[in-house]
Amino acid sequence: MTKLKRTRKTIRLLTALAVIALQSACSTSPVVFSAKERRDAAQHVVPAQELVAFVDRHGNLYPGQEVEVKLDAMTAVSEHSADFASLEALYKRGADPEGWAKMRSQAGVTDTGTFDEQWNLVQTKLRASLVQQIQQRTQGTRPLVILIHGFNNDYTAADAWYHLVSEDVRKLQRDAVVLRLHWDGMVQSGVPVFIWREAQWNAPIVGLALRDLLRSLPSSQPVRILTHSTGALVAANALGDATKPLDCERPGYAEYCKRISDSNTLPNQDLYRVALVIPAASLETFRNYPNASRTWPERMILGLNKDDFATDKLIFSCRWDGATCMNTWAADACREVKRAFEQAPSKTQVSLFQFSNSPGNSEGSKWIFWEEHSMEAQRNRSKWWPLLHQLLDVNPAVSDDSIRFCASN
Description:
By secondary structure, the chain is α/β, with parallel strands linked by helices. Helix content is about 40%, strand content about 10%. The chain has a seven-stranded parallel sheet with strand order 2-4-3-6-7-8-9, sandwiched between helices. The chain has a two-stranded antiparallel ribbon with strand order 1-5. A two-stranded antiparallel sheet has the order 10-11. The longest helix has 24 residues, at about 115-140. It is globular and about 60 Å long.
């Protein structure tokens, strides 16, 4: 081992130990969305070309911006409780009667029947309203581009890159309609390496909510999904059975696994493409897809970075504390994705872009020997625009990285 390599290894080790030591002073919080944030989002989207949706960790849609939600009461129960950070539980236990009355009124639901009946109807009405807004803007032909952030993104952090990426999308496809999806991927102060496993449990449930939305759209609606980090798990569980790497015996989770694996609930979109940027996901994520799928993508696009700080887990294995090896092992990731979709009636095109071989526009993308995890950092790399072309263009060029990592699989 050369002196330089030994030095790098020592610095990595010391850095990892320092990060672990700092965790005792770091706090972890759910991501809940205030009326102010929902109003801000509505004011900042481009009216005819953008939409925004807010979902809690249980897959519940938030009410409109006019309805104040008692966020403190949402998180006043034990964080280990199924009621924690849940809109449904907040209203069911009567902790916010005024907010529930306004939410029900906004959806046009009367105060008759059981709470569960009312709640299901309210959620159905909110989803129908969102579907109607999508259809009014897309007219069934303009592509719908869904942006999905990952873990450790509160409203402000996600909105910052949503705004930038929305502009990027419109530069390549002026008629695209963008849906910004905000969900509870949790946040942690300090270095957010250790919240990944907990955020991992929220993503599939949010994926079910996205599945319900997609099922409500016409099968001919062109859909493009662009995710960052743990957002990959939201998309994977929306479009198929991505439960393979999950512990479905986890208390309270078996019900969700059963729903995710039910092929009868899958959307029917024929014209969808998916781009997973720095996917914080297991290599096994798509393992169950060939067993039960009726939604076959035109394209699956991987934007990977083997030097990424968060998914590389410092000096630890990408398998540690919730596997994230899809982002770090390029050839294996390509093989798994190709295998998942090899039964597609029309061949799914699998593309790969290795962002770690992609020069950035500034040295700020480096953190010691790792590279920054944020979507803003990925936008500053030269592979960003080719990846977007692959997602949006009619006949994009085949990437060199696809030939290098995927051709032999």
